Amino acid sequence: MLPKIPERLSERGGSALQWESLRERLAAGAHSPLGRVWVQALEPSADEAWIEAQQARNAEMRLLIASGSPFDFHGVVDVSELLDKARIDGAALEAAEILSVLAHGQRAAVWMELLAKLPETLAGKWPAMEELSAPLTGHDLRGLLRALEGKIDPDGTLSDDASPELRRIRRALERQHRAIEKSLQSMLAKLSEEGSTQEELITVRGERFVIPVKAEFKRKVGGVIHGSSSSGQTIFVEPMETMRWRGCWMKSRQRCTEFLWR
User: Fold this and answer.
1) Strand extents, DSSP E, the chain
2) Contact call for residues 3 and 38 (beta carbons, < 8 A)
């Protein structure tokens, strides 16, 4: 999506024209990442027609701003690589990547609405920008944007409202997680009364919910040992009665992961 510059000039006039400094100052004023990169890729050209086209677009955008209908370019990014990735069989975009594509699509949709309802003061005075925007006019993104609106939260995670199935899976995960915690808390309270545990703290070792037990009491707690402290005085045990709940929790989490990758 970078500018295609014909007849680039290899000689820029040296330091007298200060081309690089001017280009950086222009890029600093860009309102979007794509605009910034586009400006930074500009080079002087000897093609008179190309230069006149750029000047015409610039003049027409100044007319738009003067008309009181400026366009917000925030969110316009280069989505080429993301779209190429999405076309690969078996590949999937991360939620944050989809959010970037959606933001770009929303800007394109707003731009097309602007083209369809140009202020009367611009009637017949926007040929260069209309020509530049011609490839967009055959696409209506509003249906797609409405279908995906609110499905991804600003932090890039999928909203519970993305699908009834996802909401159901997440609710099941929460219930099973609470059941595991309740079972472990009960076990910890009992061990604490007997003096068999170091502290009433539930931890996670290798995706396993475990409780700290004094090494000399390891035979009193039925379960699977998942490591020990550096001193060896404490071992971390996953009680047998919580393993059934963990199996349900892992299955629900796997279903959630599979859903997110679909």
Assistant:
1) 203-205, 208-214, 223-228, 234-239
2) yes
Q: Are strands 234-239 and 223-228 parallel, antiparallel or unpaired?
A: antiparallel
Sequence-distant contacts of 138-141: CB under 8 A, at least 24 apart? 139/108, 139/112, 140/112, 141/105, 141/106, 141/108, 141/109, 141/112
In degrees and rounded to multiples of 5, residue 176 shows phi and psi of: -70, -35
Backbone φ and ψ of 261, nearest 5°: -85, -10
Residue 216 backbone phi and psi in degrees, to 5: -70, -10
**Whole-model pTM?**
0.58
Confidence at residue 197, expressed as pLDDT on a 0 to 100 scale: 66
Per-residue pLDDT reduced to its tens digit, 197-235: 656 667 777 667 777 777 777 677 777 787 777 777 787
94 phi-psi bin (left φ>0, alpha ψ -120 to 50, beta other):
beta
Q: Bridge-partner residues for 235, per DSSP? A: 213, 228
* 3 compared with 150, residue with greater pLDDT: 3
> What would the pLDDT profile of 135-158 be if each residue is shown by its tens digit?
888 788 888 888 777 777 777 777
For residue 50, the model assigns a pLDDT of 92
Written as one letter, the residue type at 250 is: M
Residue found under tokens 């910890």: 188
Task: Provide the token pair at 205.
Answer: 């070792």
Say how far apart CA 39 and CA 17 lie, in whole Å. Answer: 17
Is residue 237 within 8 A of residue 210, CB to CB? The reply is yes
- Residue 230 phi, psi (nearest 5): -65, -30
Flag the least confident range among 59-63, 218-222, 240-244, 246-250. 246-250
DSSP-assigned beta bridge partners for residue 205: 208
Q: Is the Cβ–Cβ distance between 213 and 235 less than 8 Å?
A: yes
Name beta bridge partners: 8.
45
